[in-house]
Design brief:
It is rod-shaped, with a radius of gyration of 25 Å. It has a domain of 72 residues. It is mainly alpha-helical. Helix 4 crosses helix 5. Helices cover 59% and strands 0% of the residues. The chain is built from 6 helices and no strands.
Length: 120
């Protein structure tokens, strides 16, 4: 019986050692976005580049996976911006975050903004 106890103890120690060596994947829980997350409507007084910067930062802080950014973005679009997203999604159903940023920046950036910066 003593021999069995030693075998069981040895197996138990081996299992404990193996469990310590195995790296368990760490899945970060998705946290709520801050209340300060702005909406984007596509109005001329809105800055799309600033909106993307704030949105990406909030997504990262909330542990939202980058491949889910496009889906989460829908909750923060309104009016013309939401209509534009729907149009783009019809043409490109699996649009990536970078593609969405490129198309929205082209659509909603003030063409005179860079000129105004250069003149300062």
């Amino acid at each position: 019986m003593n021999n069995n106890s030693e075998v069981i103890k040895s197996i138990h120690e081996s299992i404990v050692n193996l469990n310590e060596k195995i790296q368990k994947p760490t899945v970060k829980p998705i946290l709520p976005l801050p209340n300060s997350q702005p909406l984007f409507s596509g109005k001329t007084n809105e800055n799309i580049i600033l909106w993307f910067t704030v949105t990406e930062n909030n997504f990262r802080l909330s542990n939202i996976p980058p491949d889910s950014y496009v889906a989460y973005t829908l909750s923060y679009l309104r009016d013309l911006a939401l209509q534009t997203h729907r149009s783009i999604a019809t043409i490109t159903p699996n649009i990536t975050w970078d593609q969405l940023k490129t198309q929205f920046t082209a659509e909603f950036s003030d063409p005179n903004a860079n000129l105004a910066l250069l003149q300062k």
